[in-house]
Amino acid sequence: MRRSVQLLILFFISITTWAGGPAKNFTNMEINHVRVKTPGLFGEKKSFCIHLDSLKEGEFCFPLPGGKVISSYGGRRGHSGTDIKTRANDTIRCVFDGVVRMAKPYAAYGNVIVVRHANGLESIYSHNSKNLVKSGDVVKAGEPLALTGRTGRATTEHLHLEFRVDGQHFNPNIILDMKDRTLRKEEIVCTKTGNGIIVKSKLTNKK
Prior knowledge:
Strand content: 25-35%
Order of helices and strands: HHEEEEEEEEEEEEEEEEH
Structural class: mainly beta
Number of strands: 16
Shape: globular
Largest sheet: 8 strands, antiparallel
């Protein structure tokens, strides 16, 4: 609980600094690369919890309402996210409140947006035909971020969605029920290991 409060305080202090101007609190690395660590996220602890179960109505939005999953996380090619398709130039919306860390063309991602959230997550939206926000913008859940496209390494117009913790991607199905397009209202535990980070629901831990 104390850790969650500390993260929220840091987040809102950062918003005060970022709002209305350039992202001075982001390093050059944070502005220009997808995979970066979040400063102070773990601190001296090896784990922290993300309380999706405490979010209220309006604090979450499925990123592409009406979208259909065309490629899941993992698989033989080690897919780092979930591909969701509707139509070209459909509106991509922000999953949670946050601050845009990165918004630019980036290698195979094409036009990509990375949003840092107060709960410790980062959400990534890529292959966009057009980005509608810039680094340093404060965004709310449901706010338009971009339009679906096929920039970068993409063969059809779609949204490539990722979630990351401290730079490491994990299965978006831990956060979202892709079939029902809803939020999994659970407590998520993020634990540092020797080789990375394990992200799983607390319900899973109990089994």
